[in-house]
Amino acid sequence: MSDDTQQHAPRSVLVTGASTFLGGYLVARLAANPAIERVVAVDSRVPRKDLMRRMGRAEFLRLDIRRPAIAKAIATYDVDTVVHAAPSIMDDVEHSAAIKELNVVGSMQVCAACQRSPSVKRLILRSSAMVYGATAKDPASFTEGTRARREPRNGYGRDLIDVEGYVRGLSRRRQDIDVTILRYQSMLGPRVKTRMGGYLSMPLVPTAFGFSPRLQFLHEEDALAAMEHATLRPRPGTFNVSGDGVVTLAQAVHRAGHVQLPVAPSLIPPLIGVLQDGGVPMIRSEHTAYLTYGRVLDNTRMRSEFGFEPKYTTLETLDDFITRGKTEPVLSANTWRDFEARAVATATALQ
């Protein structure tokens, strides 16, 4: 561990959303760090047994962050750093009134508890690029200061816009608290279950006819590393977090060895409902714009101000997901190469 990390390492950390991939594995990493005196894991659901074992010396509290009990936990454990990872529930759970309440009301309670606690000095929020929305008039890439052409009106994007507002309000009221907001790009990895991962795992992938959306991906390991980086080194501000590079949706489907089914954008959600095998998180109408227009983030500030360097590019993330994940190609790589060779030969002959 560097001297800078040792100097700024928190003493007592509380992590919400401990049963999720990001929250649980972050707790495991922090618990393995001897520079941190205490790690408290919080969730209304008990983590899987294997994840609980990984958490080691961390103390698990089963409580609902929508209740005042979160304030009592922060006070009892004299917490100085709160990592709010609970909104990561959006990865594999359908949005509903109950989920909205957990995201919005739960975040209000977390912010209120931090505001009342004299010990809290840092708050890290796991947000998402979904706050930017997706339209045909979007810029080539979103910077942290770019306003969405059309803000999401419902779903997780709307929730997170509200949550970010509460967190920024806390930073204005308690200027002694460093607030860091991480806007994650679409996550992929062999272990984490996400909506995009499930979508790309389908053998027959419904896509928007006539559109070629540009996509970026964030590897699960980089997502964890970025949150750990924010916890160990105070870097207040809002930061896009994404792997470098861009791929089109057609390229992603091609590399997975799957087949596109071009349809009208409005037909994508119902077709996925028909084609899914039960293991694919549903794509709702709120996600149709993203699968039609795509979304790309400018991650300059991630390096220059946040000081974080991802290990995986977008393409490397996609390839690792395909190689080590559970997706099976419909068409093998050799089949694609033979097809490309024949197409090139035919085009040459016609010239």
Automatic annotation (TrEMBL):
<dbReference type="InterPro" id="IPR036291">
    <property type="entry name" value="NAD(P)-bd_dom_sf"/>
</dbReference>
<protein>
    <recommendedName>
        <fullName>NAD-dependent epimerase/dehydratase domain-containing protein</fullName>
    </recommendedName>
</protein>
<feature type="domain" description="NAD-dependent epimerase/dehydratase">
    <location>
        <begin position="13"/>
        <end position="196"/>
    </location>
</feature>
<dbReference type="Pfam" id="PF01370">
    <property type="entry name" value="Epimerase"/>
</dbReference>
<dbReference type="InterPro" id="IPR001509">
    <property type="entry name" value="Epimerase_deHydtase"/>
</dbReference>
<dbReference type="InterPro" id="IPR050177">
    <property type="entry name" value="Lipid_A_modif_metabolic_enz"/>
</dbReference>
